[in-house]
Amino acid sequence: MSAEFYFGIEVFLNGLMAGVMYSLVALGFVLIFKASGIFNYAQGIMALFAAMTLVGFQEGQIPFAHLFNAMFGTEMHHFGWHMNAFFAIILALGVMVLFAILVEKLILKHLVNQEPIILFMATIGLAYFMEGFGDLMWGSNVKKLDVGIPQGGNFWIEENTAFLGGENFYGFYLDTLDIYATVIATILVVSLVLFSQYTKTGRALRAVADDHQAALSVGISLRTIWVIVWAIAGFVALVAGIMWGAKSGVQFSLSLIALKALPVLMLGGFTSIPGAIIGGLIIGVGEKMFEFLIGAPLLGGATENWFAYMVALVFLVFRPQGLFGEKIIERV
Amino acid sequence: MFYREVGEFKTSYRSDQQTFPIALDRTGFIVSLIFAFIIIPLTMSEYWAQAVFLPFLIFGIAAIGLNILTGYCGQVSLGSGGFMAVGAYSCYKLMTAFPDMNIVICILLSGGVTAFVGLLFGLPSLRIKGFYLAVATLAAQFFLVWMFNKVGWFYNYSASGQITAPEREIFGFIVTGAKAETLPVYYVCLVLLVILAVVARNLTRGAFGRKWMAIRDMDIAAEIIGVNPLMAKLTAFAISSFYVGISGALLFALYLGAVEVGEAFSIQKSFLILFMIIIGGLGSIFGSLIGAAFMIGMPVLLKNLLVSNLGWPGDIAAHLEFMIVGLMIVIFLILEPHGLAMLWRIVKEKLRIWPFAH
After folding, report:
1. Most A CBs within 10 Å: which of B69, B145, B146, as the mutation test of the A interface?
2. Which residues is B258 bridged to in the sheet?
3. Which of A120, A176, A288, B46 has its CA 20 to 30 A from that of A296?
4. What is the end-to-end Cα distance of chain A in Å, rounded?
């Protein structure tokens, strides 16, 4: 076997890992879409905000310090302590739950029964607000996020696979962080599935996803469910934020991963959790392989930006509800 | 649709079918035309023209275009930025390939090119609906921007990858290039906007508009009563893209002068135009314009207020601007999901019977 071939396999594996990262973001979308029919554009910003909050707590930043300094001429920056990563994560989670409650109280409550496009727009408005709010609260500089997950190439895998290829092959290069992400994402998905299948709240969630009115009529509180769903989505956003933040730093571009998750959603179907995972894997592998085989040598590179969308577009023409989405039944 | 008022009687078909059947609208239209053509050019300063009026006119055209597609035909598109880029680049190619051609013809032709591209990306809309379509249009956005970035032919292999508008004039006034004068540019944009707006208004009142609205309200039902969904959706895509393309061409040639595609026609532009029509009012030409005025004017006002008057640092003002824009969008949606145009309609209703409520 040539080194080229093994290099292809390495690209494939890295694509799988990238796909897992996409799935992490897509998962948050699916949860909210299933439970409330809202296409939550703010999911990416939520991941960014969660990561910023986490870093802020860890570093002991004073919220809104920049604003206070500008208004009152003070010189505040830090509380001066460094928080344990675990506590910081718990606190950040608390903030995301608070955020979920506020979103329900201030926005969703007032927009019940509006058309989906209106709700979608509201989440875009929310995304704008959070973008400004997050920057104002924690500052817009690029931050380093470190919660103790090792990073860099994994030497163990590299050494143990080096024998496969010829002289120019030094083993598969896989980022340890990506491997952790894969494991964490798997745990997350399994626990979400268990939660929705075997707990009372989970059953209520599924009931709401099935039929809002029927769920209401048997006494399930829609508003509580929405808070729970947004809180879970906030949790997923936090996990995604930690993973992406550790990979490439906490900065505005982190929120753009939402755009990467959209084709994943289309491919997998907006309403399916397994769809989000498998869609993510397909997109991840597809775009890396396309870039490797066709994009970089023939088209001048950077095809990753649009390839996923094109795949999803072509795919949807043949199957409009995605791979695992519910069949769209239309009545007059 | 019976958009009529009590007490206004029509005595001929001609007056019954005119573009603005209500006297108040007619006078409002004429007054705002006088205002736009005479009073604003006389009073505006260079700063206000560059910061507010020119972007308003240009994005107003794009907003009308997107409103035709989204507001009237119900197909949500997030690809407007990409289509604007098509307009800009085809305008550039036409300007450099045919130096003798009139700039207005260039702009109209680039609208035509964009219409064709829009038609291509509109084809999947027959199968894909709702949010799936909205996301699918992002394919257009990302693909087109990538293409203009990578394929050298589009920017004539210039070293910087930018496109720069060569100098052109209309009736002896320079309107593009570095020496362009503001006032002729303003008039070109204004005339185009007025013509396109009136055309759009009449299109949406006629057979096309009715078909689009039937598709928007329920496409299956529309198909059953004999509306051809292929034709309706594709015409909406084509005409909408025509408008958006013209807007892109104007933005490049007359306003910015030099364009880097990833920056000028990013996805933020697509969202900006979408915000305009949601805030202004879906399915309303007038709404597109006030939405555009709002989204262009408000950041400028905020910046003036916070940075110039209160002396806050620019970055805090920028963050606050994001927060306020987001907040405004949410508040608008909660208070009046049908936009400023609906608000205006309600105010009119109220005033008509005021002060006698019954």
Report:
1. B146
2. B164
3. A176
4. 59
Question: Contact B333/A125, CB-based, under 8 Å?
Answer: yes
Q: Is there a contact between B274 and B70 (Cβ–Cβ < 8 Å)?
A: yes
Separation between Cα atoms, residue A6 and residue A10, nearest integer Å: 6
Q: Tell me if the bond preceding B166 is cis, omega within 30° of 0.
A: no
The Cα A219–Cα A192 span in angstroms is 23
Rounded-to-integer distance, Cα A48 and Cα A96, Å: 12
Fold designation for B48-353: ABC transporter involved in vitamin B12 uptake, BtuC (1.10.3470)
Element (H, E) at A179: helix A176-198
Determine the Cα–Cα distance for residues B243 and A218; give it in Å rounded to an integer: 50
* Distance separating alpha carbons of residues B123 and B238, to the nearest angstrom: 10
Please give the Cα distance from B34 to A116 (Å, whole number): 40
Helix (H) or strand (E) holding B174: strand B173-174
Answer for the pair B198, B20: CB distance below 8 angstroms, yes or no: no
Q: Do A122 and B319 touch (CB under 8 A)?
A: no
Which residues in A49-84 are b (16+ Cβ under 10 Å) and which e? bbbbbbbbbbbebbebbbbebbeeeeeeeeeeeebe
Cα distance from N-terminal residue to C-terminal residue, chain B: 25
Q: Do A309 and B142 touch (CB under 8 A)?
A: yes
Q: Which residues of B touch A122 (CB under 8 A)?
A: 329-330, 333-334
The answer to whether A32 touches A271, Cβ cutoff 8 Å, is: no
Domain that holds residue A167: 39-263
Q: Classify each residue of A92-131 as buried b or exposed e, where b means 16 or more C-beta atoms within 10 Å of its C-beta.
A: bbebbbebbeebbeebbeebeebeebbbbbbbbbbbbbbb
Per-residue pLDDT at A166 = 60
> Would you call B142 and A305 a contact, using CB atoms and an 8 Å cutoff?
yes
Tallying the residues shown for chain B, one arrives at 358
Determine, for residues A114 and B337 on separate chains, whether the beta-carbon distance falls below 8 Å. yes
Q: Are strands B169-170 and B173-174 parallel, antiparallel or unpaired?
A: antiparallel
CB B183 within 8 A of CB B191: no
The answer to the question of residue A251 being in a domain is: yes
- pLDDT value of residue B46: 84
Is A297 domain-assigned? no
Query: Could you tell me which of B123, B141, B125 has the C-alpha nearest to residue B133?
Result: B125
Structure confidence by residue, pLDDT tens digits, A143-159: 777 777 777 666 676 66
Q: How far apart are CA B81 and CA B138, in angstroms?
A: 10
Domain count, chain A: 1
B336 touches chain A (CB under 8 A): no
For chain B, which residues make up each domain, given as ranges? 48-353
Instruction: Give the 3-state secondary structure of residue B164.
Output: strand
The two tokens of residue B125 are 């809309």
Is there a domain that residue A61 lies in? Answer: yes
Cα separation, B256 vs B94, whole angstroms: 17
Per-residue pLDDT at B111:
95
Which chain A residues touch B299 with a CB distance below 8 Å?
none
Query: How many CB atoms within 10 Å of residue B335?
Result: 9
Report the pLDDT value the prediction gives residue A135, as an integer from 0 to 100. Answer: 86
User: Which portions of chain A are predicted below pLDDT 70?
Assistant: 1-3, 152-155, 157-172, 300-301
* pLDDT at residue B1 in the model: 43
Do the Cβ atoms of B136 and A312 come within 8 Å?
A: yes
Q: According to the model, what pLDDT value does residue A277 have? A: 84
How far is residue A132's CA from residue B322's CA, in Å, rounded to a whole number? 5
Substitution target from A129, A138, A298, A307 for chain B, most B beta carbons within 10 A = A129
Cβ contacts (< 8 Å) between A265 and chain B: which residues?
135
Task: Decide: B188 and B175 in contact? Cβ < 8 Å.
Answer: yes
Residue A85 CB partners (closer than 8 Å, separation 6+) = A58, A146, A147, A148
